[in-house]
Amino acid sequence: MNTPVPGQRETWQVRLLLGLGLTLATLLMLAGLALLGYGYYYSDRILPGLSVQYVPVGGLTRQQALRRLEEALVVQELPYVRLEGEDQAWIYSTATLGGSLDLKSAVERAWLIGRGEIFRQDLVTRARLLWRGYNIVPDFQLEPGLSLEPLRQIALQTGTPPRRAQVRVAGLDVNNIDARTGRDLDIDAAQAAIVASVREALGVSAWNDELRWRLLLGNSAPRTGHFPVDPIPVTLSFIDLNPGMAEVSAAYGRAATILSAPITLWYEEPAAAGASEMIRRTWAVDRSMLADWLIMSGDSSGGVSPEVSVDRDALDSFVTSLAAEIDRPARQGRFHYEPEAALLTLAAPEQTGRSLDVQQTVDLLEQASLSDSQRNIKLPVTISDPPVTLAQMEAMLPLDLISTGETSFAGSDEARLHNISVATAQLHGVAVGASSRFSFVEHVGQVTIASGYTEGWVIVGEETVLGPGGGVCQVGTTFFRAAFWGGYPIVERTPHAYRVSWYEPPVGLDAAVYTPYVDIKFDNDQDTPILIQTQVDRAAGKLYFRFYGRSPNRKVTLEGPILGPTKPAGDPVIEVDPSLAPGQRVQVETARDGITVTVYRVIEVNGAVVSREEFLSEYEPWPARYREGPPQ
Question: 505-533 in b/e burial notation, b at 16+ Cβ within 10 A?
């Protein structure tokens, strides 16, 4: 026997180790290639060893697996359920009730097995799949809409309707009818019980959101392999139907309250404007009217809770008619003042204003009708005094003469005198409120035949024609002069188109009026009222406007008139008047040259000039005008 020398022995051992290493490396490479090939092949396929409801799906794509499951499980009819009431039972297939297996979700869960984030765990899972296999039980789900019809049929057979207490109003009496409790199938609970019972029978676990993808592996899922043969028992639950005693009792009480007693409405107002003595006005809403207002909505016999209320439309109609009776504007009285005796009397009565808040009254009336104690309502009536009251004027006695306006109407015919008297009467005794604006036209009103005026000569455009109210400008000019000499701010004033002899002297201090377009306005810039007193002195042919009150302690003077260049009047104008006799001629207007006139109002307070205002009047040339009868 040859004994290897030491050097040869070491060479043999090295060769052996190299051979073993090479073999191991080859095996590892082959294993790696196998794993790569395995992973590549199953990259879009379910891993082998998996089944759904014991139908193998390993090696299939998800679409293929779903088709296989649908083909394999369609022949197996879903289990039946036995719906059990107290002493009755009904058997339905779960398919009839809208039940189905969630195969798509089961396939998705199968595909996810062995595809976690940790490689080592995935290798273990894949090895177990090949060794033991896993079965996934698909979830059971119920389409609620499809189960409603059969469950409603059961509800009709087992349920009893409630009978609610009923409220009846007969005349002024309120009656009620006793209630009865009913029973009905709890459909939501029945659907939930069907799902829970079938899942339990099939071995489906309940996954929460956090564990949704932790699948049933190996023996953790019951290996039923088949759907249950016997119907799965499901216990039905019922609910009592409350007949609504509380609601009806409340409705009964509310109706009884509404009809319990009449409602009194009242408010107080001063006996006269500015007076301290109060008078009360009252109205009553009786029970029969309340019965007409009562509304009962909801048919209590049909299972709808009755509601009792009052008809707000009817309340609104009643309160609106009440407002028409109560509401009125404040009306200022007319005053007559006798300076010598410092005596002030009412020439026309004054009146307080009243206004009812309709919406607030409706709310109060509704609240009172639903109250058994507060059935007395103070109406929300706003009382308003006129801008100037007798009490205010009496507190100023004796009154100071503030200013006077004066013009002459001598030579006026009877029609013109009549119109002057009518217009002047509209302003006599009128009080101008403190810090307020006064309009001549607003107080004179419409100048028409219907309002008491007669026809007279008036300026319209560039001619003088017969029209109602000839002479009203005489009143307007006199009124303007009183405001002018009182130093009150003149807000609106329009001079006449031509010079009128009645308004001179002085020239340039007239004011035209043509209702409702041409007005005269001034502001009472004092904190006390002004009383207007007028006088038509036919004997002297004079018209006066006097302002009384508290003197503003200012001095008013006139600068001017300053006359500009004149424009000739031109040839006379003759117009035929059929009302005149043949050959008769009447002069209507005197010829007036055109001219521009400026006057200044100077106002002094405590000796110092505080204002110098210009008043400009541009008068057009105006020829003499005649009217004559038609030729013979």
Answer: eebbbbbbbbbeebbbbbebebebbbbbb
